Fold Thymidine phosphorylase.
Amino acid sequence: MDVISIIRTKRDRGELSGEQIDWVIDAYTRGAVADEQMSALAMAILLNGMNRGEIARWTAAMIASGERMDFSSLARPTADKHSTGGVGDKITLPLAPLVAACGAAVPQLSGRGLGHTGGTLDKLESIPGWRALLSNEEMLNVLNDAGSVICAAGDGLAPADKKLYALRDVTGTVEAIPLIASSIMSKKIAEGTGSLVLDVKVGTGAFMKTLDDARELASTMVGLGTDHGVRTVALLTDMSTPLGLTAGNALEVRESVEVLAGGGPADVVDLTLALAREMLAAAGLPDADPAKALADGSAMDVWRRMIAAQGGDPDADLPVARETHVVTAPASGVLTRLDAYDVGVAAWRLGAGRARKEDPVQAGAGVSLHAKPGDSVVAGQPLLTLHTDTPERFEYALKSLEGAYDVAPAGTEFSARPIVLERVSA
Ligand code: URA
């Protein structure tokens, strides 16, 4: 095998053989294929695509690059969910304990923020003492003790994806459906969950901007999961405006705790419940009632146990940014648009995300929303509050908000996009 002929095959729109795929993934993981060669291949895949057979083999090779976890010793069925990434997407935080409170075990391997999208681990790390890095044994202990665990994937799980993902991030090759599908599904299949619900985001704040692309990504991932014996369904959900009223790490933890306490913004509650119902059905628990588990405090009990089991103090005060800046409504009327991508970039620039992989994030930084599309606003009222420890960031963050919202005259018809747009199953 030689990598140059593999790159040429894909460059010239050919189909890669199974042996070529197995070899290139293994050689890249071992360091025998260089980053510049893999980035050329990733770009050829982005431009020319892969067929379903190639994607399945690529995914299998990434799974085979590392270990596979096994939760078959647990007494409960396992269920996991994965979001393709969005702005204000804190759903994993209330969802994992909620589904555990309803009887499933939830082994939730999560990631850090990427670009303008937030990361579950960055959010949870704003809780004093909380640890993202657990050994496999610790992960199993938290799962047995609390019913759910949210932690970082260990180095042994799909190491090919770890390398390739970091490479794609800096070579403009993130947005390729075959590469996104194989990246997500290799980790989820290697993790060993019995069932999986995918939250495929669609809209300006998502990697998939159109319903057609989101549908294709969802059906590719559902097919991969099903072929590997994981009961997999996907919901296509709206990411044209931020989820809830916050984007930023500690800000989103606070909002998630409100949801677990029976309150919180309607869109966050609705999506949490929709995903919980799908996870419970896929795990063989269709009669469980997640709305009851939110209302009666049992989901909150699991949250507190899970946070404490990972070293966190569920009662600790969360960090607050040192400085704030308020953006006001330019006119009176109806807020008809508040763009998810622009708000995500603002939160990122305020310090909630990183410019380079190794940068720290600010726990208190981010954006809080005082109105959502469809709400009436009055000229001069607060529309957004920006939070940061480093006020020199305000100017750059404000630039990303120029053109981020529209206010139409009072009485303008506004029809809200439903939060769940479509469901894709095998
Ligand atoms: N999340 C992943 O894990 N991989 C991708 O490629 C995109 C989002």
